[in-house]
Specification:
Radius of gyration: 22 Å
Structural class: alpha+beta
Order of helices and strands: HEEEEHHHHHEEEHEHHEEEEH
Strand content: 15-25%
Distance between the termini: 53 Å
Length: about 375
Amino acid sequence: MKLHHRVTIFIVAIVFAVQGAFAQTAETLTTLKQTVEKAFPSLRTPGLSVAVAADHEILWTGGFGFADLENKKPAGSRTFYRYASISNPIAATAVMQLVERGKVSLDVPIQRYVPSFPVKTEGEITLRHLMTHTSGIRHYRGLEMFSNKRYETVEAALGIFKDDPLEFKPGAKYQYSSYAYNILAAVVERASGKSFRDYLKEKIFQPAGMTSSDLEFLEEPVEQRSRQYILTGDDFTVARKVDLSCKWAGGGMAGTAEDLVRFCIALQQEELLRAKTAAQMYQAGVLADGSRLEYGLGWRLTKDKQQRVWVGHSGGATGGTTYFLHQPEGKVAVALLANAQGVKGLDELALRLGETLSPRPEGPATGQGD
């Protein structure tokens, strides 16, 4: 075969490959959009923002409904929401950066880093206990979730709970606690010499390209901030004003859905942590009796029908619901942010979107943490 014939065949093959990839991407995007459009009415939220990424690229971001019902402002890709408990994996990543640098250790008493926190008679608390929600530190009581008090320092916010007895011996069982994560913010400040806010900006948000993300300060202007709502009967009412300084690391961050998938991309590309360190976060925690948790270091673990492990986190804010899903091996990330409290179905929707992007495994299915 003559050289120019071989070159022609090669070029034609490339053209068909590119056209095939383009068609596949277009078909995938259509499927993603139709999936959300179909699910949106049943979610019962004024607005929803979505972002999906695969293979280190953001494939699609979009919005449905309204970010602000009263002013008829549509939800979009840049709408700003409370992250709620999705703050957990971000705070945990900050701690693991300090672990990499030898500044902190996961398995020593927390008083080494936060000496003001009282020693508990129920047992010794470590960073690993805090990060896996096995510390025994309590969650909210009464109306604490609706606090509108400004705590000027991370240390001051620890006063809400630090003198209370533990609810069980550290390591004995899993019990979610936003307050336990507050201590991680104090650890970051002590070990880094920076405020928690400055540390996040310099070491997490900027390197990951998370240009909108920050701790939430309502007095600071944000151009596309969503209004937060509560569904009462068939009507949405504006949620009460709250101040998240009582729980910066456990639920006080805010930003866009797009920023959350950028966070995953940065982890995949080792912009924030070495791959080996990130992998530690995705491993199931273990209780003192040897039982394995469905929670790692800041990440919740779940399996799909193929038994593949996905990591992520849900969030319930005053007037908001969030869900975040990541498949590290498949390099897939999905973020869903809604501006209504108690929205059900975001987890199932996120997994459907993720499975659309993630190739089916060949051969027997396996999963991390089995």
